[in-house]
Amino acid sequence: MSLSVSVSTVKRKCRITVSDFDTEIQDTINEQLPAIEFSLDETFVADTGNTGLQATLNLGASEVISGEFLAQLFRDAGSSEEIDFFDIRFGRRNEQFADAKIIDPFGLKAQGWQRLSPFLKAQAPMMAETRSAIAAKVPLISDVEFES
Hints:
Number of strands: 2
Number of helices: 7
Number of domains: 1
């Protein structure tokens, strides 16, 4: 049995009630679900008799896909900027998103991968050493550089 994630599940997790994003959500599911399924140990995916296991795998996959979709929306122009006009502020609803990571601004992908972690394929020791991490960070200027 393969994993199953529906557009309605992703919309519910992302709190989307309109159908404007249905095609983009389906494209994200089609892109992400095979990769998620490939990263899981085949014995867990094939265990159709354990409905709890299948529900856990589907939930984890839906969280990862929902997080990826929200990250794509977060990267759209204007989605994370704000404008102040006297006492009126337009922009982010919450200050906690000021330092959000662009790759997973709401932590939903990390939550999904955490849920799936016991069921992932065993990795070769060298894979962890060669995996690159993406981090967007503003370089800090030292006092010496500032004075010159």
